[in-house]
Amino acid sequence: MARRRILLAQEYYLHEVHLGVARFAREAGWILDSVGYHSFVLPTDYPGDGMVIHVHSQAFADVVTTFPGAVVDVSGSRPASPRWGVVLTDGWAIGVMAAEHFLGKGYRRMAYVGAQDTASVGLRVEAFLTTASHGGAAAEVVSTRNVRGRWGAMDRMLGAWLETVEAPVALLAENDELGSILVHAALDAGRAVPDEVGVLGTGNQLLARDLCRVPLSSVDSRAEEKGYRAAALVQSMLDGTAAPPEPVLIAPAGVVERASTQALGEVHPAVRQAMAFLREHLRTPIGVADVARATSVSRRRLQDLFRRATGRTVRQELERLRVQEACRIMRETDAKLLAVAFESGFGNLVALDRAFRRTLGCTPSVWRRDQPA
User: Fold this and answer.
1) Which of 26, 28, 27, 18 is nearest to 53 (CA)?
2) Angle formed by the axes of helices 15-28 and 223-238, nearest 10°
3) Do 194 and 213 have their domain in common?
4) In the 8-state DSSP scheme, what is residue 136?
5) Are residues 49 and 121 in the same domain?
6) What are the helix (H) ranges across the chain?
7) Contact (Cβ atoms closer than 8 angstroms) between residue 180 and residue 208
8) Are residues 187 and 97 in the same domain?
9) CATH number at residue 149
10) Which pTM was predicted?
11) 372 — pLDDT class (breaks 50, 70, 90)
């Protein structure tokens, strides 16, 4: 049988989606073409068997509508043809995850910053506002729709708003690129990140987060998995299966915390001191008494303040931070589990294993195995 030829066409290029599609293409033996990597040209006469598309313009949607092969969209930006498959990130889950991240840090003022151009993003915003409200926080939407693509206008708008907004405030950005812009705008407005303004991106995209002046926390939307699942759906449709009537939803992996949200909102100074001490001594054997000595209050008082601010005990927070660090090490390196245990502060495999079972419900080996390639 002749090798299938598939086009990956992204008007808004996402490297992680490309990685996922390319991984499936290798496994399936496809010939994979791509437009959007360097520049985007409408594929008006593409001769292949199928397409994975990230569509924004009506002109592109019109071209793809006339294509006779299998089509799967990963953007949700335009109404899909009934014969298209659609694979999207679970927007509601992202909104809930982001708001819970901020609530857990004691923030009582939040905002979503960005546009709401797709149904998935609309659900993300609704979930963010609803979860924030249920948690006792005030939340608003700061729309960038009218200044999108106009750098000077966006800088002026965000700068003026950030100069006047009451701190501390937590911001969920539409994507990592806008998250990076928000960090720069806050710093230029004289606001400290993260102590006055916490910023959380969406997507966990390598390029955008690494351009940031303060390392950007982000919701890992598993874009690579979205690309892989979209490619698999193209293959299934070419084999004769009809496109699913509803979008296939990809659950986000979680918040990847970096410096831009490593602060607490409206909390007692002793809690801030304790959190700073925990992060600074993450890899050393410390206990609650050590943390209390680093603050201005007694051990009992610290435990009470800490639980009210975070919903966790000091020991639980230390374990959470160490598990988070272990996940980062396993995500970014091939280090053996014993090395992961030492580098994340657990000291031995038994402690590492028990902590993962308590917090994530699985062993470190299973967690590593289940991560997207």
Assistant:
1) 18
2) 40
3) yes
4) T
5) no
6) 15-28, 58-65, 91-103, 119-134, 151-164, 176-188, 206-210, 223-238, 269-280, 288-293, 299-310, 314-332, 337-343, 349-360, 364-369
7) yes
8) yes
9) 3.40.50.2300
10) 0.76
11) low
